[in-house]
Amino acid sequence: MKPRTTRLQRAWNIWLTLPEAVRMALIIIGFVALAFLSGCAHTNPVIQPRTAIPVQCMEPIPARPAMPTEALPIDATVDAYVQAAEAEIGRREGYEVELLTALQACTAPVTP
Q: DSSP H helical segments within the chain, as ranges?
């Protein structure tokens, strides 16, 4: 009984009977076809750039309060100056809070 050959064995036998030039041409054509097909399968992803767009800040600038040390006369005593300086610390802290609030309103991210 003759052993049965598989399709792969028959294809390999046909391949071996081809002339070497034809085999090389088929290999080159196969590589070129694979290159073209792999190029079609790859697509470049669309990248949307996320750039910040400057927007004018519409937050009003808080008015600077009058500082007590600026209103002191030149011949003010040390006690009057210390008292005015302590009062100025509280006013400056309040003014800084107002400035920080305005700055945070201007730098907050804009929601679309």
A: 7-17, 20-41, 78-107
